[in-house]
Design goal:
With about 475 residues, the protein is an all-alpha fold. About 75% of the residues lie in helices and about 0% in strands. It has a domain of about 210 residues. The protein is globular and about 65 Å long. The mean pLDDT is about 90.
């Protein structure tokens, strides 16, 4: 089978990331203390892949015999994954040195996971979705247990692996049942033919199992059990990548599979609405009782997955555009919040409680300002991007007569204000009793500043993203 050169050009962001990952492996193998070199190779490689994604953005179509889609949708997500990976790498170098786990394999695993995410967003066939999810998941399992001398990190990786394997089993079995019902694994063909087999128990069983498998990946209730323990034990910078890149990738798959089906299927709308409501309630209510900030942000991600799923349940164009805008803002504000945690955190998981941040503004005012920005955005307070992100998905729900779901979203957002702003109050009005490091690496400052400016910029100029998303559906 001959493959046109145009297919390779259209898929150049993914192929470029593969070359970068292999180059990192080679450097790490050949050069002593290669972690410094791999750090720079990773950043340069990610920058080049972002440039390739922008170049290939207009090339809409399919490639490799219809197995992958190219152009706008795929490359929008490619840029999102690569930005998430790049910010994570910028934050990671000083963190890895502080935790004595500064190995070049860390950067290679991030690139491998990013390739998996890019395959998911580019998928035109369920086989490619499965391959992408497996590549992403296996890399993240290893990252979760990267602090292998620490029992909690090993526990984190094991829990993530076991529940992730179950989720993959559900997904694969669902694909098999849907293939048996429709006769193809091509996503576009399944979506177009689903109305003709919507009365088949086999097709509904397949859709149900795929929904369960993807729900595990985005961590919506009641498939969220693994999140707090995994996030608590994993390296903080790895958590920043897991909670943003992998969630965006899973929602990219959600949109590909369910984005059109939900428009004409009330049963699926009701099911997605119930899951979204449960996630918003469970995530926000349990987050209130958390004293560990990593666990608080873990439950926060469950709540935000519910907000994003609200846009999908709406089943309209505004909802789909709102999801893409929400994911963009979420990448910056969540990486920023966890990035600040990685800067303040000390060896052996110290400085991770609310009390440890008491009086931070007195000792480290710049870091405190950045953390306040991220907390305000996560809470949905204007003029930050988190406010508009919630507005678009809730407005989409109202437009689809899901006003009750939007009301639950608003009320649970009010609940979240308590635990987000509690941290801000402690930082600015508490008495400082904790020793903080006054030295923050330049790479960390760069990553946190970029994230804060993006959160503020997207809140003031949302059209920078919305003008792109309107062209994708």
């Amino acid at each position: 089978m001959s493959i046109p050169i145009a297919d390779y050009v259209a898929m150049s962001p993914v192929l470029g990331a593969m070359v970068v990952s292999l180059l990192i492996l080679t450097v790490e193998f050949l050069i002593d203390a290669g972690e410094r070199v791999t750090f720079y190779v990773s950043l340069v490689g990610i920058s080049l892949c972002i440039a390739l994604s922008v170049y290939a953005y207009p090339m809409n179509g399919t490639a490799f015999n219809g197995m992958v889609q190219t152009g706008g949708y795929a490359n929008f997500f490619n840029c999102l994954f690569l930005v998430s990976a790049g910010l994570t790498i910028l934050l990671s170098r000083s963190y890895l040195e502080k935790e004595n786990i500064n190995y070049g394999e860390y950067y290679c695993l991030i690139i491998f996971a990013t390739i998996g995410m890019m395959l998911i967003a580019s998928a035109a066939d369920f086989i490619v979705v499965f391959l992408g999810i497996e590549l992403m998941s296996i890399s993240l399992y290893v990252l979760a247990g990267f602090m292998r001398r620490r029992a909690k990190s090993n526990e984190s990786a094991l829990k993530y692996f076991l529940l992730g394997a179950f989720a993959t089993g559900f997904l694969l079995y669902g694909i098999a049942l849907l293939y048996g019902s429709v006769g193809t694994t091509n996503i576009g063909s399944i979506v177009s033919r689903f109305s003709g087999v919507s009365n088949s128990y086999l097709s509904w069983a397949g859709i149900g199992l795929i929904l369960v498998g993807l729900s595990f990946k985005v961590a919506v209730a009641p498939f969220h059990m693994w999140v707090p323990d995994v996030y608590e034990g994993a390296p903080t910078t790895a958590v920043a990548f897991m909670s943003t890149g992998s969630k965006a990738a899973a929602f990219a798959a959600f949109l590909l599979v369910f984005g059109r089906i939900v428009e004409h299927n009330q049963r699926l709308t009701d099911l997605l609405s119930l899951i979204a409501a449960a996630s918003m309630i469970v995530g926000n209510v349990i987050a209130i009782s958390q004293s560990n900030l990593k666990r608080m942000l873990a439950y926060s991600t469950i709540a935000h997955a519910g907000y994003i799923l609200t846009g999908l349940a709406a089943g309209n164009e505004l909802g789909r555009e709102g999801i893409l805008f929400y994911l963009t803002v979420y990448v910056f504000m969540n990486i920023g919040a966890l990035g600040v945690l990685s800067v303040i955190e000390r060896e052996e998981e110290k400085n991770l409680s609310y009390e440890d941040y008491s009086g931070l503004s007195q000792k480290n005012p710049f870091t405190a300002i950045l953390m306040a920005i991220f907390m305000f955005s996560l809470a949905g307070i204007p003029p930050f991007g988190g406010f508009l992100a919630k507005y678009y998905v809730f407005a989409a729900a109202v437009n689809s007569n899901l006003t009750w779901l939007a009301i639950i979203g608003v009320l649970t957002s009010l609940v979240s204000v308590y635990y987000y702003l509690r941290l801000v109050v402690i930082m600015y009005f508490g008495e400082s009793a904790t020793a903080y490091s006054n030295t923050v690496s330049k790479t960390c400052i760069a990553a946190l500043t970029i994230s804060a400016l993006a959160v503020l910029g997207l809140g003031i100029f949302p059209s920078t993203i919305l003008s792109l998303t309107r062209q994708l559906f």
